[in-house]
């Protein structure tokens, strides 16, 4: 697809500085870009690369000055660049095939299919499943009985969606993810662990994206909920009856224990975890590798294990670095005290 710089500026509500008739054929990072491509600078650390990039144009913030190269100035260059990528880059085109049902697809009884659905090779769909319009289901996906898939959802290969699961509109689920597996529920009796039936469900709301190899367990009774607009990275474990609020960010290798509740706009950084039955307030941030053992109020910023206010944790870490020196000082002070006590007893 070809677009002029003027057309791109109109798309992102930006202002062209320079020749607006330049033709753009693709997008690329600022280091890799070549003639005919457009790139972006959203961080001042990369401003020096503007003078060496081979890109034909650069999307920048309003404060950037002209560097003798065509620019598009916009309030949010990163967001603007992503919008251009959707038009000019190939994106997921290789996996999204034209609408239709491949001959190897297995459909259960009473399956309802919307318009322009793409069911690719070896998809298995159980009884009483409803699939909305413009849904793409890639090869080797399993969808259990009585599940619901909303419009314009994209499910990549080898995803398992168990029975009675509800997936919203414009959801993206990456390969290897399991939605609706049994929660880890066992009742110990005299040293034997008896399985507790997991008869609840999972609700994935609109505009959620779920990374590869994520496990989202169904509720024991009731539901596990992933709120609208939430983005989940790869290798995340979400236990039974967890509720995650809208527009939260869950980074790779996070673990969220059963019945924990996360508010809206929560960020959980890589390898962090939350114990069961806790509440994390709106817009809280849990730093990487932090372990939350107590509920957190809104707008908290915590780190460490057990998680504590980030500023306090930084002071503790700084003190630990001085520990050898402090131990040496204490040893010297103890010797001086001992000497003084000896003199006083004479």
What is the count of structural domains? 3
* Number of DSSP E strands: 40
User: What is the name of the CATH architecture of the largest domain?
Assistant: 3 Solenoid
The averaged pLDDT comes out at 93
Indicate the low-confidence ranges by residue numbers: none
In the CATH hierarchy, the third-tier topology of the largest domain is known as: UDP N-Acetylglucosamine Acyltransferase, domain 1
How is the largest sheet built, in terms of strand order? Answer: 8-11-14-17-20-25-28-31-34-37-39-40
| Coarse structural class | alpha/beta
Terminal Cα span: 96 Å
CATH class of the largest domain: Mainly Beta
Beta-strand fraction estimate = 25-35%
Task: Tell me the helix content.
Answer: 10-25%
What does this structure look like?
- The structure is a single chain.
- The protein is of the alpha/beta class and 346 residues long.
- It folds into 3 domains: 3-88, 3-Layer(aba) Sandwich (Udp-n-acetylmuramoylalanyl-d-glutamate--2,6- Diaminopimelate Ligase, Chain: A, domain 1); 100-310, Hexapeptide repeat proteins (UDP N-Acetylglucosamine Acyltransferase, domain 1, 3 Solenoid), CATH 2.160.10.10; 316-345.
- Helix content is 16%, strand content 28%.
- It contains 4 helices and 40 strands.
- The protein has a 12-stranded mixed beta sheet. A 10-stranded parallel beta sheet has the order 9-12-15-18-21-26-29-32-35-38, with no helix packed on it. Strands 10-13-16-19-24-27-30-33-36 form a 9-stranded parallel beta sheet, with no helix packed on it.
- It is flat.
């Amino acid at each position: 697809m070809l677009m002029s710089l003027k057309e791109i500026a109109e798309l992102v509500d930006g202002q062209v500085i320079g020749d607006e008739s330049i033709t753009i054929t693709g997008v690329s990072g600022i280091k890799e870009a070549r003639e005919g491509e457009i790139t972006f600078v959203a961080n001042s650390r990369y401003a020096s690369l503007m003078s060496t990039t081979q890109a034909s144009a650069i999307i920048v913030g309003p404060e950037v000055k002209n560097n003798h190269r065509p620019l598009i100035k916009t309030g949010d260059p990163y967001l603007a660049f992503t919008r251009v990528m959707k038009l000019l880059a190939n994106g997921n085109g290789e996996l999204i095939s034209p609408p239709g049902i491949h001959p190897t697809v297995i459909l259960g009884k009473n399956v309802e299919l919307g318009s322009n659905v793409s069911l690719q090779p070896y998809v298995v769909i159980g009884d009483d499943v409803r699939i909305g319009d413009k849904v793409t289901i890639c090869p080797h996906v399993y969808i259990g009985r009585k599940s619901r898939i909303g419009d314009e959802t994209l499910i990549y290969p080898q995803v398992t969606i168990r029975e009675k699961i509800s997936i919203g509109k414009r959801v993206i689920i990456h390969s290897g993810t399991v939605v609706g597996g049994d929660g880890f529920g066992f009742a110990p009796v005299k040293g034997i662990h008896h399985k507790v039936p997991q008869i609840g469900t999972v609700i994935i709301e609109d505009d959620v994206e779920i990374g590869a190899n994520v496990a989202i367990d169904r509720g024991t009774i009731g539901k596990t909920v992933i709120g609208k607009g939430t983005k989940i990275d790869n290798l995340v474990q979400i236990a039974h009856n967890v509720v995650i609020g809208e527009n939260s960010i869950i980074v790779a290798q996070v673990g969220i224990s059963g019945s924990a509740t996360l508010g809206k706009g929560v960020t959980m950084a890589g390898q962090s975890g939350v114990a069961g039955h806790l509440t994390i307030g709106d817009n809280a941030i849990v730093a990487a590798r932090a372990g939350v053992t107590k509920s957190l109020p809104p707008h908290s910023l915590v780190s460490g294990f057990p998680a504590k206010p980030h500023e306090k944790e930084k002071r503790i870490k700084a003190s630990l670095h001085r520990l050898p020196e402090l131990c040496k000082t204490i040893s010297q002070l103890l010797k001086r005290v001992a000497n003084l006590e000896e003199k006083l007893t004479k």
